[in-house]
Amino acid sequence: MADASKSPERLVFLSDGVFAIVITLLVLELRPPHEATFAALVRLWPSGLAYAVSYLFLAIVWVNHHHVFRYPTEASRSLIWANFAHLFSVSLVPFTTAWIADSELAPLPVTLYAVVFAFINITYMMLCREAIDRQGMHKVSTSDRTVMRIRSIATLSTFVLAALLALRYPVAAMLLICTCLAIYLRPSVSNRP
């Protein structure tokens, strides 16, 4: 019987709590228009876009986080710290989302937004290394792990490209970020669940 104190289950519960708080902070940044008109609502499109992209991103990160935590058998020190790094990076999303909304998609806020997404991807790669490559290697085929690495590197590269693109074309960078999110809509890389 496994030692309950070493079970990764508590990490999952903690992570769920952090995700819930981050999503709550995200929605608290939504502000209604000052006028009671449809035109005033339409002028808030940058806020709506930033919120929708961030919410979708957080949902994808949460689904992938739960997928990754199917594999580790114990909460090793390195897994705990990789998880905390990942949660820290996720906690930055509401701040960058609010900045994008307040600045109406200005270049620097969109750049930072893409950098935060890249940071989340890096910490996700760390989490995968600890949860899958070190503890769950026998549960995931070598070819699936290779596809996961390629997908992570491609996504990271796309977020970095979006950060650079945002300096001049922030709306195009947001579109690139949205396109990139589609890669992770399905956490599993194979047809197996």
The H-and-E topology, N to C, reads as HHHHHHHH
Number of strands: 0
Mean pLDDT: 89
Distance between the termini: 26 Å
What count of structural domains?
1
Specify Rg, calculated over alpha carbons. Answer: 18 Å
Largest sheet: none
Low-confidence stretches: none
Q: How many DSSP helices?
A: 8
Strand share of the residues? under 5%
Helical percent range?
over 70%
Which word captures the global form? Answer: globular
Quickly give the structural class. mainly alpha
Question: Which key features would you list for this structure?
Answer:
8 helices; 193 residues; 73% helix; mainly alpha
SSE blueprint:
Elements: H1 9-28, H2 38-42, H3 45-68, H4 77-91, H5 93-103, H6 107-134, H7 142-166, H8 170-181
Plain-language structure description:
The chain has one domain. It is built from eight helices and no strands. The protein has 193 residues and is mainly alpha-helical.
Summarize it.
With 193 residues, the chain is mainly alpha-helical. It is 73% helix and 0% strand.
